[in-house]
Amino acid sequence: MKYSYSIIIIFLMMPFMAKSQTDSLLEYKQISFVKINQANDLFTYWFQSDRNFSDGVNIEVAHSIFNNTVSDKILFGFKDTKYRDFSLAISQDMFTPKNTKISELDTTDRPYTGLLYLTYAKYSNNFWKGRKLVSRVFLGMQGPTSFAKEAQNTVHEMIDNPLVYGWNNQLNNGLMLDYEIQYIHQIPVTTYLTELHLFGVGHIGAMYNFAQIGFRFKFGRFTDTYMNFYGIANSKNKNKLTTDDLAKFSSSRKKIIPKRIRKKSAQEQIDYVNNKLNRKFQIYFFTEGMANYMFRDGTLEGSLITFEENNYRYCYGDYNHFQIIGRYGFVLQYAHFYMEYMRYLESDYQNNPFGYGRIILSYVF
Questions:
Q1: Strand partners, 289
Q2: Residue 69 and residue 110: Cα distance in Å, rounded?
Q3: Which residues pair with 346 in a beta bridge?
Q4: Separation of alpha carbons 303 and 117, rounded Å
Q5: Cα separation of 352 and 354, whole Å?
Q6: Structure confidence at residue 36 (pLDDT)
Q7: Which residues have C-beta within 8 Å of that of residue 20, sequence separation ≥ 6?
Q8: Is it the case that residue 95 has pLDDT exceeding 50?
Q9: What Rg do the C-alpha atoms of the chain give, in angstroms?
Q10: What are the residues facing 341 on neighbouring strands?
Q11: How far is CA 188 from CA 8, 59, 196, 254, in A?
Q12: Which domains are assigned to the chain?
């Protein structure tokens, strides 16, 4: 156990282990924000259930301090791009069976599982072609050291909900050490009011192993997905494109400029893009659909790096590996304040539908 905590301490020191690289990137300033991300079935009406993914909280901080030589090499990204951002997050996830009123071990249902982990992320953009490469490394603990039991029952007491009695049977302590790469590509049907993207995800590690492919559609008033994280307005970014930059746009990327503007001078076109990228007010709706194949789910089988034997004996043949996942929601941002609501619908390990909601509040500084 002491070795796992040593790894976590090294992980936390990564932002300070090398000199920041951002000093030379005077044209583009990484976005800085604090984001609170809460997921719960209480945020939904249909398919409301504590079963499967029951609750999750995530606090993410984005800042240039996390951009250093060590993390830049560990985390994959596009070469020769200044449009990249880094963040560090702490998350706690909880998974529960259908019947949470019994304290006895029930091996016919999914295990209680708690996760507490850090996520180091790099968001790398090829703005001119509409491509994004996101890489993440996850480090944390599964089991009683995640304090999932204490967190869930404390919240249930606060809102006068029944306590969850089976946490003493949760999967035992194990290490979460995972790596993920996500590739997003804008497709040519995009217009100045819409964005359509295809994406693929590969995730490998001690906790999860899966592959995913899907699409994302946006409609409304927004900035651009391929300048920073996912298009959050950033007042610190004083980067101004010039008429020379217009030649760097691929033919499909030029569709972010309305057709009537594309008929005007190069200066008018680039003025439109600069104004779009620096919008303080955003409101848009989005929907996502994806197919996911889970090669191994550590929340059912336990971590590949475990420190204690588990009571549950789930293996590859005991659960459904193919999932269809849907998401939809909206984003509202004005100046420094950002809010997002997202609704999830997906199939569980027994191919039964369930859902939950996610609320994200962020302050950009």
A1: 215, 326
A2: 42
A3: 325, 354
A4: 13
A5: 7
A6: 97
A7: 64, 65, 67, 68
A8: yes
A9: 22
A10: 330, 359
A11: 43, 34, 8, 9
A12: 2-237+278-364 (2.40.128.140)
pLDDT for 23 equals 36
Three-class SS of residue 233?
Answer: coil
Total number of residues shown for the chain = 365
Give me the pLDDT at residue 178, please: 98
Among the listed residues 319, 358, 127, 56, the one whose alpha carbon sits nearest the alpha carbon of residue 210: 319
- Which residues lie closer than 8 Å to 25 by C-beta, 6 or more apart? 82
| The pairing of beta strand 33-40 with beta strand 52-62 | antiparallel
Q: Which residue has the tokens 């400029």?
A: 257
Question: Tokens standing for 179?
Answer: 């790596």
Query: What residue type is assigned to position 364 of the chain?
Result: V
Are residues 276 and 305 in contact, defined by beta-carbon separation less than 8 angstroms? no
CA-nearest of 354, 326, 357, 344 to 49 is 354
pTM of the shown model: 0.88
CA dist., res. 223 & res. 192, Å (int): 10
Return d(Cα 253, Cα 258) in angstroms, integer. 11
- Could you tell me how far CA 43 lies from the centroid of its own chain? 18
Task: Give the mean model confidence (pLDDT) for residues 74-80.
Answer: 91
Contact indicator for 181, 200 with CB cutoff of 8 Å: no
Distances (CA, A) of 9 to 12, 13, 87, 254: 5, 6, 17, 45
